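I have a small job for you when you get a moment. Can you supply me with one protein entry, sequence and fold together? It will help me judge whether the discrete encoding reads sensibly. Write everything out right here, beneath this request:
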Amino acid sequence: MPTPFLSSEEYDERAHQLYNEGQYDEALDVLREGLALYPNSVELHIGVGYARLARDEFAWARQSFDKALVLDPDHEDAIAGLGETLLKFGARDQALARFRRILELGYADDIDLVLQIGRALFREDLIVEAREFFEIAAREAGEMAEAAACLGYVRHRQGDDAGAITSLQRALQLDDEHAEARIYLANILYDRGDYESSLYHLERTEPDDHWEELGIWRFVELKKSLYRLPDDDPELAPWEDRLAELVGDPDDIDEMLAEIESRMAEEEATRERGQLELFGALLTDLAEQRTGDVTEHRILLNDGRVYVGSWERIVRAMRDANKGMTGRSVQEFMATEARRGYSLTGVKIPSVDAESFLRGSANAGLLRIVR
């Protein structure tokens, strides 16, 4: 039964608290109760719209935002909510028009709203448009860590790693406990081969700060490779527990399918390797018969770098070019890169010898064997 002594604002506040806790069904119940008493409450209609949006009920969300805008055509939260809903329908131009309408109404200094719009655009891969709103937020709130962090995310997506690192470092200067910015920065540094700096930042996070597996995989890998930690080191236990939470336990069908897929992949790899070794041996024999020289291979990395020589010479050159592996053995380099490749692609890369390592890396899409 409705509670008559509650005002519409109190209903809105209750629903907002439930929404922030992720209890969307309960929030919707409170909002409906409030609307039974206050059918013309703009805030309650907007609340219903966002609750519906969170439940992926886009048509219902649009209806609620439309009702709110009939009551108040210039309500910034209703306009933003309708814009987000239009994005879900693929109406990008209409959504952008709504978002820019908010700026025209003078709400550029409403940083939370501007960041909300930027994130909505970012999620839909509208990177240029997202950057426009993140830059407004960073300009209007130069001391706000979240604004700097969001600008870092979008710069990275645009391929500007240097700019992304600068923005993320700025975010951490403003808020040393901004875990999302720290994890994002650690992943960028890892991708650039700066493993020690990456680990420096990952060590300053907690397992529960991570909502994706990648950062945890990399933390465990770096601790094992740089600190020589064994697999069963107790320091790694909470991280592996968190990884298990994120990945979840596969059911019997998943395990069966995974086993079948693994067996098929192993059989295919064995056949391909046998053919490659036979073909490679024929080429080597032919080359040695003609020139007396050992065949040189050519490897093309995804960043454009080219290495030429024997398998062993190529791997040594790759290790020497990696500043994070200075002083490490070739075997350590291959093991570290194999783990890194697995964390990036999910493909297991052998590291028992140079040829297997390079062919496995090619199979994972990390490089191309030209010859």
The beta strands are 297-301, 306-309, 367-369. The mean pLDDT is 86. DSSP finds 18 helices and three strands in the chain. Residues 252-291 form the longest helix (40 residues).
